[in-house]
Amino acid sequence: xDIDALLTSAAINTGLSVLLFxxxxxxxxxxxxxxxxxxxxxxxxxxxxxxxxxxxxxxxPSPSWIVxxxxxxxxxxxxxxxxxxxxxxxxxxxxIRVFSIAAVMCLFLVLPVNxxxxxxxxxxxxxxxxxxxxxxxxxxxxxxxxxHCLTLYIISCSACxxxxxxxxxxxxxxxxxxxxxxxxxxxxxxxxRSIPYSVGESYSNSVKKFFTDYYSSSYLxxxxxxxxxxxxxxxxxxxxxxxxxxxxxxxxxxxKPCCLDNERSAAFVxxxxxxxxxxxxxxxxxxxxxxxxxxxxxxxxxxxxxxLCIPFRQLWLRKIVTLLATVxxxxxxxxxxxxxxxxxxxxxxxxxxxxxRGFLKQDLINHVLTGYLPSVILMLFLYTVPPTxxxxxxxxxPVSRSGRKRSACLKILYFTIWNxxxxxxxxxxxxxxxxxxxxxxxxxxxxxxxxxxxxxFFVTYVLxxxxxxxSCEVMQPFSLLCNFLKKHLRRNHEDSSDGLVSFPxxxxxxRVLLFGLIGFTYSVMAPLILPFLLIxxxxxxxxxxxxxxxxxxxxxxxxGQLWPIVHxxxxxxxxxxxxxxxxxxxxxxxxIASGFTIPLIICTLLFNEYCRQRFxxxxxxxxxxxxxxxxxxxxxxSSCLSKVQFFFSCSGSYRDG
Amino acid sequence: xDIDALLTSAAINTGLSVLLFxxxxxxxxxxxxxxxxxxxxxxxxxxxxxxxxxxxxxxxPSPSWIVxxxxxxxxxxxxxxxxxxxxxxxxxxxxIRVFSIAAVMCLFLVLPVNxxxxxxxxxxxxxxxxxxxxxxxxxxxxxxxxxHCLTLYIISCSACxxxxxxxxxxxxxxxxxxxxxxxxxxxxxxxxRSIPYSVGESYSNSVKKFFTDYYSSSYLxxxxxxxxxxxxxxxxxxxxxxxxxxxxxxxxxxxKPCCLDNERSAAFVxxxxxxxxxxxxxxxxxxxxxxxxxxxxxxxxxxxxxxLCIPFRQLWLRKIVTLLATVxxxxxxxxxxxxxxxxxxxxxxxxxxxxxRGFLKQDLINHVLTGYLPSVILMLFLYTVPPTxxxxxxxxxPVSRSGRKRSACLKILYFTIWNxxxxxxxxxxxxxxxxxxxxxxxxxxxxxxxxxxxxxFFVTYVLxxxxxxxSCEVMQPFSLLCNFLKKHLRRNHEDSSDGLVSFPxxxxxxRVLLFGLIGFTYSVMAPLILPFLLIxxxxxxxxxxxxxxxxxxxxxxxxGQLWPIVHxxxxxxxxxxxxxxxxxxxxxxxxIASGFTIPLIICTLLFNEYCRQRFxxxxxxxxxxxxxxxxxxxxxxSSCLSKVQFFFSCSGSYRDG
Lengths: 657, 657
Prior knowledge:
Helix content of chain A: 55-70%
Low-confidence stretches of chain A: 247-260, 650-657
Oligomer: homodimer
Distance between the termini of chain A: 53 Å
Transmembrane segments (chains A, B): 6-27, 98-117, 144-165, 320-344, 364-385, 412-434, 512-544, 565-586, 592-611
Domain CSC1/OSCA1-like cytosolic (chains A, B): 187-248, 262-307
Protein name (chains A, B): MEMBRANE PROTEIN DUF221-RELATED
InterPro entries (chains A, B): Csc1-like, CSC1/OSCA1-like_7TM, CSC1/OSCA1-like_cyt, CSC1/OSCA1-like_N
Shape of chain A: globular
GO molecular function (chains A, B): calcium-activated cation channel activity
Largest interface: A-B, 37 and 38 residues
Strand content of chain A: under 5%
Number of strands of chain A: 4
Mean pLDDT of chain A: 82
């Protein structure tokens, strides 16, 4: 690939993006699409009067949404999207900052060194190959490799410094979130599972006895979890249909208590103070650690009711099974893809289906089959990944939706890093990559060989997959289509908030982190990728702000639990970059540069360990000082009781969700 | 090695052991040695009247000590040596049981299969090579390998069943230990470290303020930890000398409070109830997880006073540094040994020191140098291991002696398994073994190749190192020598309990576990090792009982924390055995036997995971139900206060220890 081809590709993608963003700015002004593009706003305002007045302005593209997204403050994001949305924004801000520094250093120091790295006659800049701008062009044993080493130091140090301050401020925000969030029944509630069965006593009585025995001063009340039997399920379904026919306003508890419920060995227990609830979750309750298992209850909207009925004793087995399933899925994912793609080779296809032979000889069909079909097949397979991982995470048995999303996020992250980053870098394809697993030590060397040559692929990847994903995100083609079909085929002109979804952190966080990983590993080796990456992050910053404010609703949140994932992945990216650099310096026969990079790895790992000591406990445990400080505010038993009522009513209404 | 040689070696070692045990039975009857062989008894009785009457009986060996050791009940061991001693005894009982089953299966099923494994003319049994009795003698593709596979199943299953019941009963004992142990000031006390410095306020005031603020209902009192300054140290030394001269009775607090102490950022905080103390250690105290760090205080005798002054912020760094130092020491240990042993080769020695040439030509010198010196050098180097690991564990910064011992135990365990087991099995020596680390997957195959051939080495190892270590343990040659020198050279005839030590779990547990590992890996491959191993375990059972009852004092205990180490190592041994079996079955071209072993590995790992869920939390956290149940017994403030006084007096007397 030469510079001209790169510029052409960039121009095409820029044009496409501008076109799609303009289209978006028109579409969003159409009242019929308001539920697609302003779902959250409509849901929060409960104002569904369509502004159906016609005006010319509606069909002129305008950048007003960009201005609005830019002007939104962090406090507004916090109020609208919660701490998780802020954490996601901070991830983007961190990326923009660190890659700005990297871009300045790399474009002004590393790029000239690479370009003049060998004594050769340079062609006109347009016709120059991309390879001339990578470290591959620096001759072996060159003294100029100190430039790369220095840049690596500057990027690593600035990344660590920025990470530190982000972690610090997010920790502070999390503590503030815990203290200042409005009084919530889940703060006083714990979930007790695996209540031991005793003959002649109901679970409810066991719970009452246990907590009045051991937590007499702080125990308030409890609610056993029920499982809907078959009859119950039919009744719920019938009720749902009734609700739809009568159009009963949504969101109110409508499920009556029913004598057909079956008691389960799980219960919500409510305490008088928040502190007492936290204490009850920190201690082992019983000499058998697998009975009377306690944890803080999720918020009512966050509870994954279907998983409450899973016996606790199964959980460890379920975790192992899903872990194995995930690993197998991850490692073998490319096998069926490769197989199906192999079928698109014309010879094989015509061998398998001889009657197609005449059809396949046509030129257009030929082009489509060989040019587009493989990537379409890959894309289709990739679309199955988030639902599959979400399914795995459900089977794992978390009791909260946020926990399930977090677990799916991790799984998709591992999947993306393995299948997009590693497998693409290993020349022999996935089978070879699989073999490499057995000799872990060779991976950095293999990557060091591959990275300078794969630069053009990943520049294109940023341009196409990165930019296109943002256009796609902002356009919401799937919702748009559904909405269109609903309105024009089913003649249903009423906007309903049924289809509103919460922010898909489990797909977006891994995507952003993957681009971060690509950015770090390529920054020093092939700096030309950085401008395109910076544009991606800037666009992402605007697009996701717009989406948080307008589109996605906040049903529940994890309180910033995403940040440790971001932090750890960034540290992983940094260390991988440094190890690859050692490999590349080794190949370039510069032992001094290699040697100088080793302390950098050690320092990065020490920094990570320090952060693990200093900040990460806050994300795992509750802080006594913080909880004690605000416990007195909600201590009147009457206010507590009303909250408990609310909690149970939520349980009722969501039990069938 | 043939059977005759093996029998000769066994006869020599048996003779030697009988001789040493007889010598011991005489030596222990000599009143002058009573402090060596009855140290614990004398210390507990405070009865130091030497029974100096002469009798002929004193010089006749008798097996009375064996009978006494055999008759000691587990309750007596518990009362005398504490839970740790019982756990050690249970480890030996477990080994005896599981290897009895293994011996029956292997000697009656596997041994004949091995012996008649190939169609060959057998020599007379005396002249038969040991190899004929190992799996190496079974021909490739033999159908009789099912016998080995079945035996492996029976051994693994019985080991898991026995492990389960041991874990269950030890968990129960630990819970009983927590509830029924006599009221101890440390139960009510927590150690607070990293108290933040605030200008114009002493640490003592900060602690008081913090705990009256947040634990007003349960906080009782506190004591700041002081560091002895230089002047203080000199005074302590002076006082020690005074004590020696005046022969002031030992064990009473004699250190007066001194104005030269420097306050440290650590304190002991005493609560009114045990439950409150535990709660204070379970919560994060402050938004900065690196300040106000709490943990349960060790017993007064268990506190490692010198480490209390280490700033908490250093701990994570110290842990990393000692971990690295341990790994380097472990991996490189054999390098200097090999080098020094190389020097004992005569040619090299005479090249380096030409003037020795005549001296080295003498036959005796020659034999000594080549025959014994290498193993003596290895032994001397091996003696440096426990003190080195203990030093590493001290530097790590644990606040309790039992914690330090446990950490050293783990380090020595890893060291032993690596340097005795792995390095001896890898044909190319330690450098090759080091290379193998990079391709972890090959280790089982390498071991599978090596194990049948190394059988004779390890049979000899059990005979010499195992049996000899027991004779050495019971004889206590070092203490005996010290005692002799003290009495006869320094003319000091007074027995003092200064030299009494607590049980060296950190050296004995790894030794027993190593023999367990050898036993499991060789049981199916070379069953002839099992009788010798069984004798070792039976002897060990008697010897260590005797030592617990008579020799070692119990200064402190960890409450059974050794068992998880034993359990995990046994599971590791089992899985390693199974992996080696897969390798051996593969070499013997029996894919069915290999395939049948894979589910066994999975089941063993699942069993381990189950135990981790079911039992191990009890060894990490306190159980609310158990602590709540016995909190009311000690709740009167006056009894508490007297305990606190006692604790502080202990602090005083041990601060210089």
